[in-house]
Specification:
eight-stranded mixed beta sheet, alpha/beta, 34% helix, globular
């Protein structure tokens, strides 16, 4: 499958702007480049209420932005979302506009979480932040007008990695009970030495490259031994049983595609219900670009997953 015209336009625009390869610039520049994607997301959509708050983290308070759509007539989920950025970049502003759209379209209360980033805080610090945020927000679900028993943990790119790790910790600890995990283009195994075909096919020229992912993993892992830790690389975990049902969204033209889809297959083998959806011709960053048709299709897919997980009894009456 060739690149979607939307993806071709994105690459042409970035090339015209002189967008450099991520692996060839410093962390500060990577953070600036990621912020540069925000204007391409379109204007922010209004929402009934947006709450700026914090939750306790292992080292310091973690910023949280809660998106509350129009008052619901029935119970609604709390969707805890972790932004991407290769563990080194990204923040609440990067996902502000996508999360506004997600809350409006699904009716869920969406909580975007900021976490400590590498290289200042390497693994396992971001995982511990994600775990602390899930536990704290689950305890405050009522405060945000959502249901404690309708907890969703989600993330895009590196945030999908953290979401998967947080689900694993919740399973090992026995709570909070997570009803659904949503992983969008997640890195789930180290890039160096990866034998997945997508790492070869899309090694170059598609924004997220093999060299970029190797660079990000090097910045994230504190030691080489961490590459095999199941909280750093969930795909390498020996046991995936009893994890939450999963919705996994992948982009066709992304080195990470095959490992995310393999994770879905391994979850199914372990008895976990999984929905896998690949977006043909799309780049790794498609969920950050709200004007793309694929973004809206992904939001619709998430809405369907939430309704399937918690059907509306009035619709079935």
């Amino acid at each position: 499958m060739s690149l979607h015209p939307d993806s071709e336009r994105v690459l042409r625009t970035l090339a015209a702007q002189g967008f450099p390869p991520f692996e060839q610039v410093g962390v500060g520049t990577v953070r600036e480049l990621m912020r540069g994607l925000i204007p391409a997301q379109g204007p922010p959509e209004p929402l009934a209420r947006i709450v700026e708050t914090t939750v306790p983290g292992p080292d310091s308070p973690l910023p949280v932005r809660v998106y509350q759509p129009e008052p619901a007539t029935g119970p609604r989920p709390l969707l805890v979302f972790f932004h991407g950025g290769g563990w080194v970049a990204g923040d609440l502003e990067l996902v502000d506009r996508p999360l506004r759209r997600l809350a409006r379209a699904t009716g869920a209360v969406v909580a975007g979480v900021g976490y400590r980033r590498a290289p200042e805080t390497p693994f396992p610090g971001p995982v511990h932040d994600a775990d602390a945020a899930v536990r704290a927000l689950a305890a405050r679900a009522d405060e945000f007008g959502s249901e404690p028993d309708r907890l969703v943990v989600a993330g895009e790119s590196a945030g999908g990695n953290l979401a998967a790790a947080a689900c694993r910790l919740a399973r090992e600890r026995g709570g909070p009970r997570i009803g659904l995990q949503i992983l969008i283009c997640p890195p789930l195994a180290p890039a160096r030495g990866s034998a997945f075909p997508s790492y070869k096919t899309y090694a170059h020229g598609h924004l997220n490259t093999r060299a970029a992912m190797e660079h990000f993993w090097d910045l994230y892992l504190a030691t080489p031994a961490d590459a095999a830790h199941p909280l750093a690389a969930p795909l390498l975990a020996p046991d995936l049983a009893s994890l939450p049902p999963a919705l996994i969204l992948t982009a066709e033209c992304d080195p990470l595609r095959d490992e995310a889809e393999e994770y879905g297959r391994r979850l199914r083998t372990a008895g976990v219900p999984v929905t896998l959806r690949r977006y043909d011709g799309m780049l790794h960053v498609f969920f950050l670009l709200c004007r793309l048709t694929a973004f809206q299709e992904a939001v619709d897919e998430i809405g369907r997953a939430l309704r399937a997980r918690w059907p509306d009894p009035q619709q079935n009456a």
